[in-house]
Amino acid sequence: MRSPSGGCDDLLAACPDAIAELRKLLDRHLRSRPTDYLATYLDLLAVNEQYHWSAVVGDFSDDFYVIACPHCAAEV
I need a surface site. Which of 11, 15, 40, 75 has the fewest CB within 10 A? Predict the structure, then answer.
């Protein structure tokens, strides 16, 4: 579902009711705090026509940085 290409945009445009239902199902699934949260979230981005973000969002494992608080020097 992530990144439509090669005519898939037309396919999606022809199925607005199915896309709306899929959006509801994905949202409901995310609210259940699933173990496949990231994959479901990326699919929800794609359903909401955020194809670029759906394709480029990483797994968040390497996007954390340890920095010091400017007020107390505690690592945050």
Answer: 75
> What residue ranges do the domains of the chain occupy?
1-76
Share of the chain above pLDDT 70, in %: 76
Confidence check: pLDDT of 72 > 70: yes
3-state SS, the chain, equals: CCCCCCCHHHHHHCCHHHHHHHHHHHHHHHHCCCCCHHHHHHHHHHHCCCHHHHHHCCCCCCCCCCCECCCCCCEC
Confidence check: pLDDT of 33 > 50: yes
